[in-house]
TrEMBL record:
Residues 160-377 form the Histidine kinase domain. It comes from the Bacteria. Keywords: Phosphoprotein. This is histidine kinase. It comes from Pseudomonas solani.
Length: 381
């Protein structure tokens, strides 16, 4: 062929477009009037929703919605959004002709004629049921894993707690016996004070244990760390052997964060367990919290963050181990000692909240694990 001959330009005629639209079977692709009436229908729509073109054309979009969504005016709301903004997106359950439900990912775009008048809405729907179900399944598995981990942590905590409860009971028994033997009202008052104090401590501990053991409710709450860490400190200390202490360093006022408090507690506990295992001797673990503005230096995060770090003066992490520590099931601890899930839980938690986790470690000098969580900042009115 003569190379100078211009290449022919192929254009689709109307029939060609129709063939194209009908060749798409993985997407329901159809047109609505601005009022939401169906005016065209393709093979994908028939495949996904189960209605033939004759059955669908002329009907209203709302026929695919669940009763709850219809009652909530969801179809009308979607149409109004598309007409007002040019586009609407939605994800949710829809109903097929046979009454079964599918999880739809739907987009609606306004279609205009050459003069800019709205002539209808182009609607594209995808059946995402399989993906949705596998996501739900994964969420279920994660929840199970979390619960199993929590039970294991509870086992470790209650061991320490039994010891602490014993101490509290010793105080109560001893002080009440002494109070029974003395006539001095001042002394009796002092002893009653100690009994009361021991009782309060015990009840606090039990409350914390119970709230920790509760099934996960996955509830995001505004957490103000300076209010919660002091009571958590006593609880966390249960996991530490005698001679090892947990020191709090808080730099208030700390930014509030929006997290599931039980997951945050689990994360901190995992870091504290790791610090404890790395030290194996007397010493202090430092839990520090402060605000920081990030400008991309950590995982390209920018903005206001709450930084929570757990520092130990333990063995440190060897360079060949370091790249693997966040892998699920990676552990250097002996059989039955570590599951290798602690840091992968911590990693999942921070990523899920749009944050990150950093590790600074030097063999022989200790490790600092730093959680970085986006601050919840209220806009000034
Ligand atoms: N503070 C630390 N000091 C030294 N090594 C650490 C520290 N934190 C984590 N590691 C290393 O990272 C590995 C993985 O930690 P991770 O918490 O995920 O699992 P684990 O502690 O081994 O087991 P689990 O937490 O399930 O009981 C540990 O086995 C250890 O080698
Ligand atoms: Mg661990």
């Amino acid at each position: 062929m003569d190379p100078n001959t211009p290449k022919p330009i192929h254009r689709l005629n109307e029939q060609g477009y129709e063939l194209l639209v009908n060749a798409v079977v993985d997407y329901a692709l159809y047109m609505l009037s601005p009022e939401g009436e169906i005016i065209s229908w393709n093979a994908g729509a028939e495949r996904i929703k189960g209605y033939s073109a004759e059955e669908a054309i002329g009907q209203h979009l709302s026929m695919f919605f669940t009763e709850e969504d219809r009652a909530a005016n969801r179809p009308a709301h979607l149409i109004a959004t598309a007409l007002n903004t040019g586009r609407a997106q939605d994800e949710g359950w829809r109903v097929r002709r046979d009454g079964t439900r599918f999880w739809a990912l739907a987009v609606m775009d306004v279609v205009r004629d050459h003069d800019g008048r709205i002539i209808g809405l182009a609607k594209i729907t995808r059946d995402m049921t399989e993906r949705h179900e596998s996501e739900l399944h994964l969420q279920g598995l994660r929840a199970q894993l979390f619960q199993a981990q929590k039970l294991e942590a509870l086992g470790q905590l209650t061991g320490g707690m039994a010891h602490d409860f014993n101490n509290l009971l010793t105080v109560i028994i001893g002080a009440s016996a002494l109070a029974g033997r003395t006539q001095d009202p001042k002394r009796i008052k002092e002893l009653l004070g100690s009994i009361h104090e021991a009782g309060l401590r015990g009840s606090h501990l039990t409350q914390h244990l119970l709230s920790f053991a509760r099934q996960r409710d996955q509830q995001q709450q505004v957490v103000q760390l300076e209010n919660t860490l002091h009571s958590a400190q006593m609880f966390f200390s249960q996991a530490l052997p005698k001679g090892m202490t947990l020191e709090l360093q808080l730099c208030p006022p700390l930014h509030p964060i929006l997290v599931d408090p039980s997951q945050l507690e689990m994360t901190l506990l995992n870091l504290i367990f790791n610090a404890r295992d790395a030290m194996e001797q007397d010493g202090s673990i430092v839990l520090r919290a402060e605000n920081r503005t990030l400008t991309g230096e950590w995982d390209e995060l920018t903005g206001e963050f709450l930084i929570i770090s757990v520092r130990d003066s333990g063995s440190g992490i060897p360079p060949d181990v370091l790249p693997r520590i966040f892998e699920p099931f990676f552990t250097t601890k002996g059989l039955g000692k570590g599951t290798g899930l602690g840091l992968s839980q911590a990693y999942g938690f921070v990523r899920q909240h749009g944050g990150t986790i950093r590790v600074d470690s030097e063999p022989g000098r200790g490790t600092t694990m730093t959680l970085c969580l986006p601050a919840l900042l209220y806009q000034a009115p």
